[in-house]
Design brief:
Layout (H helix, E strand, L loop, with lengths): L12 H27 L3 H15 L1 H9 L4 H11 L2 H4 L28 H13 L2 E3 L3 E3 L1 H4 L2 H14 L10 H11 L11 H4 L9
Antiparallel strand pairs: 1-2
Helix pairs in contact: 1-2, 1-3, 1-8, 1-9, 2-6, 2-8, 3-4
Length: 206
């Protein structure tokens, strides 16, 4: 298979807007595929595709962070995050932090760079795809580990995290304003911090 060389440089506002649209389109397609599998009672694979959809949507705030990276080192860190499963899937634990009185601060633990939320979501995805010998001394199979309730829960979460249409902070003009006004003052965390993940995040909770 041909090898594709990964890019790790700066982006223009137009390139970032294009990347956001590609990521969101792919996220929506993965979610549609997950629903097809759910209807066919292929619950483990449905759950795995839903998590992949969440990861694709998780690229959007990282692309915005790439736009305001101020050095080659920050660019490398943000592109590394862009290609890291555990940096893009932290929102897979979102429901655990939904409370009756919701404030942005309630979700801060999700974005703690020392947390293992990304690893937890990744482990769930692996469990939905592969057999394994687990810590309690048994062989785990996706068909046994992931049932319909779990699959429906993850798909419902993905549905709420992935915007169905045009949203804020997606056009080249909006992203250019983001760079112009926030670039000089925003702090770009290198380990999945709160400001990266709340820059234009849309969550649709009904």
């Amino acid at each position: 298979m041909p090898r594709i060389r990964s890019y790790a440089g700066p982006l223009t506002a137009q390139q970032a807007a294009d990347g956001i649209q590609v990521a969101l389109l792919n996220a929506r397609t993965l979610l549609l595929d997950a629903r097809v599998l759910l209807q066919s009672e292929r619950w483990p694979r449905a759950a795995a595709l839903a998590i992949l959809a969440i990861e694709e949507a998780g690229k959007v705030p990282i692309i915005r962070a790439i736009l305001v990276a101020r050095s080659e080192s920050e660019l490398r860190d943000e592109w590394r995050a862009y290609r890291s499963h555990t940096k893009k899937n932290v929102m897979g634990q979102f429901f655990a932090y939904v409370k009756e009185e919701n404030h942005l601060e309630n979700f801060r633990p999700l974005f703690d760079p020392t947390s293992d939320f990304g690893a937890t979501t990744e482990a769930f995805k692996q469990l939905a795809m592969y057999s394994d010998y687990v810590g309690d001394g048994r062989w785990a199979s996706p068909d046994v580990s992931i049932d319909s309730d779990l699959a429906e829960m993850v798909i419902d979460l993905a549905d709420k995290l992935i915007p169905s249409g045009e949203g804020a902070m997606q056009s080249p003009e909006e992203l250019a304003l983001w760079v112009e006004h926030l670039g000089p003052v925003v702090s770009v965390p290198r380990s999945g911090g709160l400001s990266r993940w709340t820059s234009g995040v849309e969550i649709h909770v009904t």
